[in-house]
Amino acid sequence: MTDIGRTDFIEALARGLEVLRSFRPGVPAMTLSEIAGQTGLARPTVRRILITLETLGYVRGAGRGYALTPRVLELGMAYVNALNMWDIARPHMEKLVAQTNESTSMAQLDGSDIVYVARVAVPKIVTLAVTIGTRFPAPATSMGKVLLAALPPGSVGTVLAEASRSGITARWQPAPADLEASLREVRAKGWALADQDLAPGIRSVATGVRDGDGRVVAAINVTVHAAETSVETLIDDHLPKLLRTAADIGHDWALAAAVPSTTI
To answer: Do residues 54 and 91 share a domain?
Structure first.
């Protein structure tokens, strides 16, 4: 850690940022000891920082370790915008909306919830309002099922042990065995359906968006009103377009990530 000899330098803040930066690509969770090793900080110091970050929602417990949450994006939106991650996705999402005349969204997993990170909507009346940052219980949503199905084996129960912060009580409250059966089906198909599982009238289909290493880093859906669009139409007509869109976004993300960064 850089030692700056200025009286207004806040060492506690620097240590907290050092802990956040210690999480490496391709390593979804780290133990306290691993973080201490990466940062060179004492274990008691790292523990206090992690407790603080967990209380604030920037990290969560993951098995015997800790993992970052999507809330960290709030600290780095300027960087995310500079990378144009969601800007890259948006034209593809707009094309999908033009093809289906239905809303599409992207979400990531944060504990037992999904958090919306991108959206292109059409003006239709739906049961629940959705904006960037909206949270829903993951098991009752098509995007949540996709993201849960992509987790490492045996980790779904740990993730869902964290209480939802969405404030929504979903219609579908599956027993563990029922949810696991549903997730097995999602893994086999590569997509998920939620037919009014979250709330009456909301029907959606979703699939994963992968990075250049093949990891599911987000989910994308098409949402329809159940009274207007049948399950058959959603799957037979909209799903193929959704799968193509997800593949195109993943392709463009991989290309963008492969561009060497410029060091000044």
So the answer is: no
Same domain, 48 and 128: no
Across 135-162, b (16+ Cβ under 10 Å) vs e yields: bbbbbbbbbbbbbbbbbeeeebebbbee
Question: 86 with 34, same domain?
Answer: no
State mean pLDDT over 163-183. Answer: 92
Same domain (yes/no): 60, 88:
no
1, pLDDT greater than 50:
no
Residue 2 lies in a domain: no
Burial bucket for residue 113 (CB in 10 Å: 0-12, 13-18, 19+): buried
Q: Does residue 3 form part of some domain?
A: no
What does the DSSP assignment read for 76-120? -HHHHHHHTHHHHHHHHHHHHHHHHSSEEEEEEEETTEEEEEEEE
Report the chain's mean pLDDT, rounded to a whole number. Answer: 88
Is residue 4 a part of any domain in this protein? no
Residue type, 49: I
For position 211, what pLDDT does the model report? 87
The structure's pTM equals 0.71
Partners of 110 in beta bridges? 113
Same domain for 145 and 254, yes or no, is yes
Residue 29: CB atoms within 10 A of its CB come to 19
Percentage of the chain exceeding pLDDT 70: 90
In terms of residue numbers, what domain contains 18?
11-68
216-225 and 103-110 strand pairing: antiparallel
DSSP 53-67: HHHHTSEEEETTEEE
Instruction: Answer yes or no: is 263 within a domain.
Output: no
